[in-house]
Automatic annotation (TrEMBL):
It catalyses: Fe-coproporphyrin III + 2 H(+) = coproporphyrin III + Fe(2+). It is an enzyme of class 4 (lyase). The gene is cpfC. This is Coproporphyrin III ferrochelatase. GO terms for cellular component: cytoplasm. Keywords: Cytoplasm, Heme biosynthesis, Iron, Lyase, Metal-binding, Porphyrin biosynthesis. Fe(2+) binds at H181, E267. Fe-coproporphyrin III binds at S52, Y121. The lineage of its organism: Bacteria, Bacillati, Actinomycetota, Actinomycetes, Micromonosporales.
């Protein structure tokens, strides 16, 4: 299969105060998120002048991928479209069609399996293609990359760098706290062909990063940014509750590493740098938040590797990875499906 373009697929975020509510309406349409939660989240965005950092981060990633392709002889145009805000996927796919693109690969800015992190993006691509019509390009999503060295190594270095800001005399009472976006437990149970794949992959990534960054320290995987109505169970514990437990257990210092994400978007700069940092302060815990891959050259090169491995036969282009959970190019039918709310 010859591919004629790469499409970078982002979550999208508002870039003006007046865009916050329409953006949130796009994110939560049909998802049963209560209005109180929406008002609260709108306020998080307004703290940053109504500007989510995520679109600029994706512009930076787009530029870095283009430069990396050019420097390494990969002659493919790179496009960018979002699930929830401009540039919207349907507009980008229309542009691809106008440019004569017939087949493309998609790199989605989420490393993991699961409905929100994988399948929903594939549904978004299908919807964008059908909005464009029968001439729309074919678009295949690249594989999940939770255990790719280009994702794990930047997270590992970020944990090391965060640890280096903490008091070495307190190392014995320092703990690593990995976080990812919580999802409804029903969605987590339905993730992947046998279920539980979102959490299993996160546990694998956490173990890989912890072993490489600080094998002497204990670590946990906990959850952040819970949404939805209160009566629906979501993955727990929440990072803030967990910090309280750690403090009560004699932990003095924490490194919080958002391995669930690829960039420092709003759920990182608000939910961790603002809320979890305040929780840690109240509890008397020393707190350091580890960075995310962003435009780390290893992460950018990973995108190219995923393209090249997909185009070449596996024996000429081995799938680089550090973990052992199964990985595939094309999700099996029914993968992550019954995940939605009733
Ligand atoms: C698994 C997962 C990821 C990681 C995978 C990936 O990266 O895609 C992720 C990322 C993100 N989530 C984001 C923002 C939001 N997520 C929401 C709501 C929800 N997220 C969910 C899951 C996830 N979300 C779910 C199950 C919901 C409930 C509604 C539904 O069933 O879909 C809401 C609604 C309000 C609220 O929080 O209640 C907002 C505003 C932003 C952008 C931040 C920025 O603007 O910088 C990013 C990168
Ligand atoms: Fe989210």
């Amino acid at each position: 299969m010859a591919y004629e373009a790469l499409l970078l697929v982002g979550f999208g975020g508002p870039e003006r105060p007046e865009d916050v509510l329409p953006f949130l309406a796009n994110v939560t349409r049909g998802r049963g998120v209560p209005p109180e939660r929406l008002a609260e989240v709108a306020e998080h965005y307004q703290h940053f002048g109504g500007v989510s950092p995520i679109n600029q981060q994706n512009r930076d990633l787009l530029a870095a991928i283009r430069a990396d392709f050019a420097a390494n002889g990969v002659d493919l145009p790179v496009y960018w479209g979002n699930r929830n805000w401009h540039p919207m996927l349907a507009d980008t796919v229309a542009q691809m069609r106008a440019d004569g693109i017939g087949t493309a690969l998609a790199f989605v800015t989420s490393a993991y399996g699961g409905y929100s992190s994988c399948r929903q993006y594939q549904e978004d691509l299908v919807a964008a293609r059908s909005a464009v019509g029968p001439e729309a390009p074919m678009i295949d999503k690249l594989r999940q990359f939770w255990d790719h060295p280009g994702f794990v190594e930047p997270h590992t270095d970020a944990v090391r760098a965060a640890l280096a800001t903490l008091d070495p005399a307190r190392r014995a009472t320092t703990r690593l706290v990995f976080t990812a976006h919580s999802v409804p437990t029903a969605m987590a149970a339905a993730a992947g062909p046998q279920g539980g794949r979102y959490e299993a992959q996160l546990r694998e990534t956490a173990a890989l990063v912890a072993a490489a960054a600080a094998p002497d320290l204990g670590y946990d995987l906990v959850w952040q940014s819970r949404s939805g109505p209160p009566h629906v169970p979501w993955l727990e514990p929440d990072v803030n509750d967990h910090l309280a437990l750690l403090a009560a257990d004699g932990v003095s210092s924490v490194v919080v590493s958002p391995i669930g994400f690829v960039s420092d978007h709003l759920e990182v700069v608000w939910d961790l740098d603002t809320e979890a940092a305040a929780t840690a302060k109240r509890l008397g815990l020393d707190f350091a938040r580890a960075g995310t891959p962003g435009t780390d050259p290893r992460f950018v090169s990973m995108v190219r590797e995923l393209v090249v491995e997909r185009v070449n036969p596996p024996d000429t282009s081995p799938r680089r990875r550090l973990g052992t959970l199964p990985v595939w190019d094309t999700c099996p039918a029914g993968c992550c499906v019954p995940a939605r709310r009733p």
